[in-house]
Specification:
This protein has 600 residues and is α/β, with parallel strands linked by helices. It is built from 20 helices and 14 strands. It folds into four domains: 61 residues, no CATH class; 163 residues, Heat Shock Protein 90, CATH 3.30.565.10; 134 residues, Rossmann fold; 79 residues, no CATH class. The radius of gyration is 46 Å and the shape is flat. The structure holds adenosine-5'-diphosphate. The site of adenosine-5'-diphosphate has 21 residues, from α7 and α9.
Length: 600
């Protein structure tokens, strides 16, 4: 209904009602706009129903004032009720409409928000899934890469080590073999470094705490860096080591790596002045078995600008330094920070550009007893063969790589074991049934049937519970050990495997006894008194000066270098002199090569 029509209708009704009152017809429904006045009514009606209006006019004129009032009062009641009802309906409708509109708007907003939320949730979920997938891909890639690199390295290191012990090979050839071995080990260390960071990122680095002699460890590192500093024309100070507790338990290799990185940077970036390694401990309240170990590396180098300070602990960040020819990956501080945090400690740096830097590390460590300390320098003797009076040990070598199979078989065959070879798990199961070996070296990743399945299958066969199975894995991740042991293996060794590990593992599992290379008391004493760290502690120019005459078995030229060494390192000189007297130049070369490795 249009507005005009509605008005007319209402007016009509009002007029009708008014008339109904006058004419005694009360059942006409009326709606009227307030304030109601019969005059108004007349006016209202006039436009649409002029005839009716003139009747109303006449009636109004004919009315007495009282009648007028009376009608008005009655009208007012009706009007009030009607008006109230209509207003109520109208207001209710309006409120309802407003509420409806608000609710609709709210629903709309909510729907949009929910849609946006679920959209961003979906984005987040997708991002997380993508990150997980990328991480998994990275781990798989690393595991594969590590496997692919370690497998050939295993053969390189193994054969070169074997040849270096071959008495038929001498002089120049032996040297070259030592170079192959040395380079292989260097390559392995680099692979391990890159893997370190990747493992940290994937949260897969584990602590390996052990008891060790703290002052000795610091002194070893100190003398190594003393040599490097000397080489770079810098002074080196090692402070307060004597006041430290003698034995502590911590992850010594991570502590070494942290110190190597900090001291390495100090030497690398400092052009003049000095480098100081200061160490001290502090009691930890409420725990007398622990102390806080503080390590501070201070240098007089170029320092680090404050705006670069915040970022230097991030991976691949290298601040601008005055010494531009420095090498590095930008990973050292990031790895150090992660190791310190893993050890529950803190690392910080203070620096003033142009005045030098101070790196400070504090780590809680447990105090230990001398009896807990494992001698890291246990002398490994070469196995010459099997002791007499033992069973004819049958060993099955299961390995898909022909080179590694040959390597392992050669080492074992040389020692006197009976050997059979299998290229995959399936062949291993068949050979196990036919031949009943005492021991199985099981590669885990192989085509046709892998080491896990083969081990489980062998364990089900008659005699399968008695055979010793040790896994050889090229996996970089130590947590794989759990899966391997669960598959039924007795132990795990990691590639590249050294021959002494092979013999030790077999002796542990089966009590096999060996005949070792003779080591007389002198050799033992010399080996014990002249450590790799002592040789590594010599400045590089002295080590290089020593290498040449030792290579050519030139005793007098070697002795001349030993005398130069005696000035600052008398103990090292004594040890070297003993080796020259015994003509043990191979031992000197070995110590030099191993000390190079420590320095890398
Ligand atoms: P890298 O030494 O391989 O570049 P690091 O992570 O060990 O990587 O160090 C990151 C950066 O921090 C370095 O490139 C250098 O700019 C700065 N830095 C670290 N130690 C020092 C130091 N002792 N003096 C000056 N700058 C340093």
């Amino acid at each position: 209904m249009a507005a005009g029509q509605a008005d007319a209708y209402v007016s009509n009704l009002m007029a009708g009602h008014y008339l109904s009152l006058e004419l005694g017809l009360p059942n006409i429904v009326v709606a009227a706009p307030a304030p109601f006045e019969p005059n108004n009514l007349s006016i209202a009606v006039r436009k649409d129903l002029p005839e009716l209006a003139s009747i109303i006019d006449k009636s109004i004129i004919a009315m007495t004032t009282d009648e007028h009032k009376n009608i008005r009062n009655r009208w007012m009641t009706v009007d009030f009720q009607q008006k109230t009802d209509y207003e109520l309906v109208w207001k209710t409708a309006l409120v309802f409409l407003i509420i409806l509109a608000v609710v609709l708007a709210w629903v709309q907003v909510m729907r949009r928000q929910t849609a946006a939320l679920s959209e961003s949730e979906a984005h987040l979920r997708k991002a997380r899934d993508d990150a997980d997938a990328a991480n998994r891909a990275k781990s798989t890639f690393l595991a594969n890469m590590s496997h692919e690199l370690r497998t050939p390295l295993n053969a390189i290191l193994g054969f070169s080590e074997m040849l270096s012990r071959d008495t038929e090979i001498t002089g120049n050839k032996k040297e070259k073999i030592a170079v192959i071995n040395h380079s292989g080990e260097h390559l392995l260390e680099m692979i391990n470094d890159v893997l370190d960071l990747s493992k940290i990122e994937a949260g897969r680095v584990e602590l390996e705490p052990q008891a060790f002699e703290l002052p000795r460890m610091l002194q070893d590192i100190g003398s190594m860096f003393e040599a490097r500093a000397e080489n770079a024309g810098l002074r080196f100070h090692l402070d307060r080591v004597s006041s430290l507790p003698p034995y502590i338990t911590s992850d010594v290799s991570k502590l070494r790596q942290i110190l190597f990185n900090l001291l390495g940077n100090a030497v690398k970036f400092t052009t003049e002045g000095s480098i100081t390694l200061r160490t001290w401990t502090q009691a930890i309240k409420g725990d007398s078995s622990m102390v806080a170990l503080h390590l501070e590396v201070k240098d007089t180098g170029p320092g680090i600008a404050s705006e670069q300070m915040e970022r230097i602990f991030e991976p691949f960040v290298q601040a601008k330094t005055f010494k531009t020819n420095t090498k590095g990956t930008g990973l050292g501080l990031a790895i150090s920070k992660s190791f310190v945090e893993l050890l529950d400690g803190k690392i910080s740096a203070e620096s003033e550009a142009g005045k030098g830097s101070v790196f400070h590390v504090s780590i809680p460590v447990a105090l230990a007893e001398a009896s807990e300390v494992v001698d890291l320098k246990a002398i490994r003797r070469n196995v010459l063969g099997l002791e007499y009076g033992q069973p004819a040990w049958r060993v099955l070598v299961v390995e898909d790589s022909a080179e590694n199979r040959l390597l392992l078989s050669s080492i074992l065959h040389q020692a006197g074991f009976e050997i059979r070879e299998a290229e995959n798990g399936k062949e291993a199961v068949t050979l196990f049934q036919e031949w009943q070996p005492h021991f199985i070296w099981m590669d885990m990743r192989m085509p046709v049937m892998d080491g896990y399945k083969a081990t489980a299958a062998i364990r089900e066969l008659p005699g399968g519970d008695a055979v010793k199975i040790v896994a050889i894995t090229a996996s970089a991740f130590k947590e794989q050990r759990k899966n391997i042991i669960e598959a039924g293996c007795d132990d795990v060794v990691h590639k590249p495997v050294q021959s002494h590990e092979i013999f030790e593992s077999m002796s542990q599992q089966l009590g096999i006894r060996y005949i070792y290379e003779e080591l007389d008391q002198n050799t033992l004493t010399e080996a014990a008194i002249l450590t790799v760290e002592m040789v590594a502690g010599l400045p590089i120019y002295l080590r290089e000066a020593l290498r040449r005459p030792a290579q050519y078995l030139d005793a007098s030229a070697t002795n001349q270098v030993v005398e130069r060494i005696r000035n600052n390192h008398p103990e090292t000189a004594d040890g070297l002199q003993l080796l020259v007297e015994k003509f043990s130049f191979d031992q000197i070369m070995k110590l030099l090569n191993e000390s190079d490795r420590i320095q890398h």
